[in-house]
């Protein structure tokens, strides 16, 4: 076709295309009545995606799309297992830093009492200590924001104090009725997961692990070496109320306790072929006698560690049945800044046991499982434990072990329900003990400073009748019905005052060193380990 002929037909071709476009546009939904037509390119898009787009563009009222999307995601995940969760962008940093084992801030521990922010502990070697901040100081302002008074919350304070490493924050403190302005250069603040490591007896060491984070293995190794240098030959590992965390941290610690190339666990899922985790190197504590403490709050990575120790007859498990979480999650970053923590596999301990408890009755029933254990008497009576094991297993030493709902301990220790009378429960709920310990510390720093460590404090400090009188007067001001305190309550109060003062002085290390003296699980662990040969 010549150029002259093409010039003749082009206007006709354009007219045909234009007419066809107008006709198709008229037929589109929304083209009638003056509405603006919107072409949706469906492609392979799902009905859910199309619905979200239509709601955003066509719905009569303006909506908070982010909230709508979160509700939709939560609704979708509610039909899966209880551990597949959506983490919104506002929560992701806090969730990640807990597992990473550090955050960026100023290095203080605080509480809020009577609308006042009180610094109850200053991290040794941290930014606040370098700036001269002291335990007992009260925070009045952060930069230009007044933080003393109604409406102040822990979240608000954290957001004001935290920030990038190297940045500065100006804090106005009240110290002995004088206002002080302090500039603090923020730094990396560790979040320790080994809460305590000390000798229970000259030969028996104790390590408390509160979670399995990115730093847990190194913390554990440091603690183990310190105890071995002090003469430790036997070990108690306390995993009570440990919700789990990184799988790698649990398997690396297990490798230090098990010999050879023993299987620690394996995982498998629909899209994840079986993967075995075995011991890979000589461990630091493969031979000494071992006890592991568990309870209904010990979950996930805690169950991996205690399950492998039980299956291989490496140590004795003491306490109560563990939580029952045998699912592996992988975290996927989302384009909105949030993340999806999705269950991708199940894990199985060496015996082939799956520890995961049933969630077939829905999330509400799953969440109420611990309460149901209490109501059914399981926390106080071993005979009330009803394992749902599908893999009968007898260890090399002839012990029958159970799965399908957690790790059942070798030695059951009941939960002491009598410890928590109504008046004591009110005291715990209102933080009376910690608030009193903080006040007592501020008024008796010289006296308390005489104790060199938690061990000396534990042996020498006495909770006198005068101190009990001061405590009940303090509690009464907070509307605690002190007239209902029984003789048994008073014994608990004496122990708790001493424990919280030790925590005020030496943080979690001091807390456990004093608390464990009368703890039934720790006492039973010592008894069992004393039976073993050196």
From TrEMBL:
Gene Ontology annotations for the cellular component aspect, listed alphabetically: outer membrane-bounded periplasmic space
GO BP, one example? signal transduction
Q: Which InterPro entries match?
A: ClpP/crotonase-like_dom_sf (IPR029045), PDZ (IPR001478), PDZ_sf (IPR036034), Peptidase_S41A (IPR004447), Tail-specific_protease (IPR005151)
Say which domain of life the source belongs to. Answer: Bacteria
Pfam families according to UniProt: PDZ_2 (PF13180), Peptidase_S41 (PF03572)
- Any idea where the PDZ domain is? 92-162
Protein's name according to its UniProt entry:
S41 family peptidase
Q: Which organism is it from?
A: Chitinophaga agrisoli
């Amino acid at each position: 076709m010549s150029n002259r002929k093409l010039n003749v037909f082009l206007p006709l071709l354009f007219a045909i295309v234009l007419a066809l476009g107008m006709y198709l546009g008229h037929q589109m939904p929304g083209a009638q009545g003056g509405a603006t037509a919107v072409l949706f390119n469906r492609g392979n898009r799902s009905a859910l995606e199309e619905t979200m787009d239509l709601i955003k563009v066509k719905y009569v009222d303006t909506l908070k799309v982010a909230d709508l999307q979160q509700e939709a995601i939560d609704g979708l995940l509610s039909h899966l297992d209880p551990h597949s969760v959506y983490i919104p962008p506002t929560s992701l940093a806090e969730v990640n830093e807990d597992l990473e084992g550090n955050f960026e801030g100023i290095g203080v521990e605080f509480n809020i009492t009577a609308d006042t922010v009180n610094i109850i502990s200053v991290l040794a070697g941290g930014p606040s200590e370098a700036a001269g901040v002291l335990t007992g100081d009260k925070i009045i302002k952060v930069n230009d924001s007044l933080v003393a008074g109604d409406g102040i919350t822990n979240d608000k304070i954290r957001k004001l104090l935290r920030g990038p490493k190297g940045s500065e924050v100006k804090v106005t403190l009240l110290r002995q009725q004088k206002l002080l302005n302090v500039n603090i250069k923020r730094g990396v603040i560790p979040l320790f997961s080994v809460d305590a490591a000390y000798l229970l007896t000259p030969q028996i060491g104790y390590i408390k692990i509160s979670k399995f984070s990115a730093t847990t293995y190194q913390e554990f190794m440091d603690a183990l070496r310190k105890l071995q240098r002090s003469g430790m030959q036997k070990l108690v590992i306390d995993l009570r109320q440990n919700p789990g965390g990184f799988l790698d941290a649990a398997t690396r610690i297990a490798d230090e306790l098990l010999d050879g190339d023993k299987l620690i666990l394996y995982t498998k899922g629909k899209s994840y072929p079986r993967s075995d985790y075995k011991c890979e190197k000589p461990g630091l504590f493969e031979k000494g006698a071992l006890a592991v403490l568990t309870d209904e709050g010990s979950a996930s990575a805690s169950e991996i560690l205690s399950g492998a120790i039980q299956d291989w007859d490496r140590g004795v498990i003491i306490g109560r049945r563990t939580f029952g979480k045998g699912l592996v999650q992988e975290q996927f970053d989302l384009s909105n800044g949030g993340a999806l923590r999705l269950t991708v596999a199940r894990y199985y301990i060496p015996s082939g046991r799956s520890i995961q408890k049933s969630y077939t009755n829905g999330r509400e029933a799953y969440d109420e499982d611990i309460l149901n254990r209490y109501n059914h008497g399981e926390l106080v009576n071993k005979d009330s434990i009803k394992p749902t094991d599908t893999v009968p297993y007898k260890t090399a030493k002839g012990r029958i072990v159970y799965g399908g709902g957690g790790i059942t301990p070798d030695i059951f220790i009941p939960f002491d329900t009598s410890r928590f009378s109504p008046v004591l429960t009110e005291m715990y709920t209102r933080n009376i003990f910690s608030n009193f310990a903080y006040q007592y510390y501020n008024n008796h720093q010289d006296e308390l400073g005489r104790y060199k460590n938690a061990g000396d404090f534990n042996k020498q400090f006495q909770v006198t009748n005068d101190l009990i009188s001061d405590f009940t007067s303090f509690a009464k001001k907070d509307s605690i019905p002190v007239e209902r305190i029984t003789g048994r309550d008073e014994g608990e109060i004496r122990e708790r005052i001493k424990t919280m003062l030790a925590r005020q002085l030496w943080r979690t290390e001091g807390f456990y060193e004093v608390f464990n003296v009368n703890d039934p699980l720790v006492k039973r662990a010592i008894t069992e380990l004393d039976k073993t040969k050196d």
